[in-house]
Amino acid sequence: MTGPFDTAEYRARVHAAQGEMQAEGIAALLLTTEPELRYFTGFLTRFWESPTRPWFLVLPAAGDPIAVIPSIGAALMQQTWITDIRTWRAPDPADNGVTLLAGTLKEAAQGGDIGTPMGFESHLRMPLANLARLQALLGRDLRDDADIVRRLRMVKSEAEIAAIATACAIAGRAFARVPKIARTGAPLDRVFRDFQRLCLEEGADWVPYLAGAAAAGGYADVISPATTKPLERGDVLMLDTGLVRHGYFCDYNRNFSLGPPDADTRSAHARLIDATHAALDIARPGATAADLFRAMDAVLTGGQGRGDAGRLGHGLGMQLTEGLSLIPQDHTVLQPGMVLTLEPGCEVAPGRMLVHEEDIVIRDGPAEPLSPISGPEMGVLE
Amino acid sequence: MTGPFDTAEYRARVHAAQGEMQAEGIAALLLTTEPELRYFTGFLTRFWESPTRPWFLVLPAAGDPIAVIPSIGAALMQQTWITDIRTWRAPDPADNGVTLLAGTLKEAAQGGDIGTPMGFESHLRMPLANLARLQALLGRDLRDDADIVRRLRMVKSEAEIAAIATACAIAGRAFARVPKIARTGAPLDRVFRDFQRLCLEEGADWVPYLAGAAAAGGYADVISPATTKPLERGDVLMLDTGLVRHGYFCDYNRNFSLGPPDADTRSAHARLIDATHAALDIARPGATAADLFRAMDAVLTGGQGRGDAGRLGHGLGMQLTEGLSLIPQDHTVLQPGMVLTLEPGCEVAPGRMLVHEEDIVIRDGPAEPLSPISGPEMGVLE
């Protein structure tokens, strides 16, 4: 399958981008990354794991997108709504599609500006030497895309929201089964493997992200892979998963206590849930990303600032994190259809923290939870 | 855990890179991608799945590397052998580490050239706008790294080879269990989920890559995700996995026939195994990547050229594909320690192909298989 959406959805995305391109004076967009290509085409493959082959999409300010891709992807691209598919035999270390791409961009831009994402969260997925060669062939430099693609992707369609809700429901069923796989004495790396297995059994297509930790009364870190250390009574086990269904992520976590939590841990967890609700209560159109940060930070620190984790939530969708950041500097105004995480964290003691995370979608009126919002009590494991 | 290797291994890698840097006149290297950072530090996390935060490593031509990273990664980086760790609070859309990075590069390069990977298979994992800002702060442009990092990574240490062998053994045990999960009537997407589960049960840390297909007498495509179509008698089921253990990949596949294969399919599969052996027989130091291509192509097409898949194998290690390509244009000379796949493919009928893949390591003398080389007969499923 090449994505869960019908052609009308992709055409609407292209149309919206083209409106912005015309306003910004951009005659053609060059897109090079997995989510950018998939957003406009529905092209869904795990083959991006290989760094060898570049993939390009050229989006003119009017007319349909043109795929400029390695021939190994032609059969799959033909299953999408894209009809203009130009291929080369990759890998070809000498050219690797640059000549074909330059010709296509010239044709699409007709002498006008060519944009590509250059701002926050972007990267160009092609060698810099090939960018230089491309610009020489074009006789001009690429310009910034004015953040068009990132901004468009922030507001999800109902079909996208449904896909994320499905991913969240799968993770919810997996979290409910954690007591079966995580007990005192179980090595953390086995718990990680077993939890990924549960995600697959519950319907994940794949599990690109799992982080977590287990330590007495809180953990030092939320991005580490698993150690072989067995779970001990008094540990807090945190599992944070980004599983994918039909190309869309969930991203939320659960904390569990091995045996009953002590008073500090219990109170810290309850405070995280309070912070989550403080943001949820004001998460509606017109509020800003910074407002949600401040609502949580008031509960967490009395408004003192922020933890070293850097932000208290973020957008998500085709990527584990994308779009807005719940930080004081992000003044993005919430709109219906934005999907985001609320991710409050707090330090229980020096070097020991707890982090909690839920997923929500902004609606007209109150926000809608996509993950099953946790109560104040942590799950207790034996 | 931050990788399976001891500090001496990372120091040896740094030392080798520094020798080449001095020969090329490069005073400091800037590295920005996951495998590049991990190669020199052992920093292993799945957090790279998030595109929001850039991560940098500065490698001076003499002295230890310097990590310039978001503070969320400091605790994990401190577990590696790296001691000079400089952090900023990310995400910070306004600067996002560029100022800190510029200062560190100036200090490390002392006015000399600063290189970064710009060639084949590389990309720069930071926004282009931030590259421009960095170069403005430095008062100079970055230059190409002369392919130093890619070339070094091609030749694996014994510890790396052992890690890849472990990944291959895990996949081998999972492939052996395929008859339990793939029978006539099983939907392909369920087979994909179940196969990933088997990989985890057999010891994979995670399963970043699974592709495959099932169709009568051969498939049109080897990069597609699974459809919901049930397996039918007469189908060839192909599963191609890149699972990870301790940060190292395997990458090989197996073809299975639903019911006994017909004569054409059987003969095509046997030819792929013949082609694999033709390459294996000559895979030793001194032969080139192109030689292996030609040895396989002679069996596959009588030396006519190549399939649209583009290459008949590739290097692997920290990435699913990396380093050399078995194509006529790649004249890389094989050296002991190079790990690669042999991946012959053939067209059984128009639009229907079979592809086979195994993993080997180049040794003094004959190459050593890392995956259990398949016999000529396909596995038969009920």
From TrEMBL, chains A, B:
Keywords: Aminopeptidase, Hydrolase, Protease
GO molecular function, a single term: aminopeptidase activity
Xref: Pfam families: Creatinase_N, Peptidase_M24
Coiled coil: none
Residue ranges constituting the Creatinase N-terminal domain according to the UniProt record: 13-155
Peptidase M24 domain sequence ranges: 163-362
Official protein name in the record: Xaa-Pro aminopeptidase
Species this protein is from: Primorskyibacter sedentarius
